Amino acid sequence: AGADAAFDPSDPLFEQKVKEYVGLKGVDRVFEAVGATKPIQSALSIVRKGGSITLIGNVSPTIELPLQKVVTREISLYGSCAISGEYEMVLDMMAKKKINVLQLVSVEAPLSEGKRWFDTLYNKTEDLLKVVLIP
Q1: Gyration radius from the chain CA atoms
Q2: Is the entire prediction scored with pTM above 0.70?
Q3: Of 115 and 10, the one with more pLDDT
């Protein structure tokens, strides 16, 4: 298990780079961990016809979903809100450097600034992926 490649979704050439890497048909499966319109639409643009997207993030209570694209391309959407024992495997993969999670961190800040960063993430006043608060 693991990823063979990782791509920065904020890169303007994100979709092109993914399709160059995997082929023009797109990827088999996408795990979307933000839960906002733009990342979900990006996921829809890179998944192949008949592929699947697992929605993990839920930062936005509602999103814009191009339903026609989902239906005509026969894309399966799955919601996930619980764990199934995968934490141990993921932690092991992180320890063995098979997953580079550092590229996902936008900001490291002291815990005392937590409210400010939660507000910033919630209000989307900055383009952030993940904020790590350090005690």
Answers
A1: 16
A2: no
A3: 115
Q: Is 44:68 a contact under the CB 8 Å cutoff?
A: no
CA pair distance 134, 40, nearest whole angstrom: 29
pLDDT tens profile 6-60: 788 778 899 999 999 998 899 999 988 888 898 899 999 999 999 999 999 888 8
- Tell me the domains of the chain and their CATH numbers: 1-99 (3.40.50.720), 101-135 (no CATH)
Cβ atoms 41, 66 nearer than 8 A: yes
Length of the chain: 135
Q: Which two tokens stand for residue 91?
A: 């932690």
Query: Looking only at Cα atoms, what is the longest distance across the chain?
Result: 48
Contacts of 80 (CB under 8 A, 6+ apart): 54, 55, 56
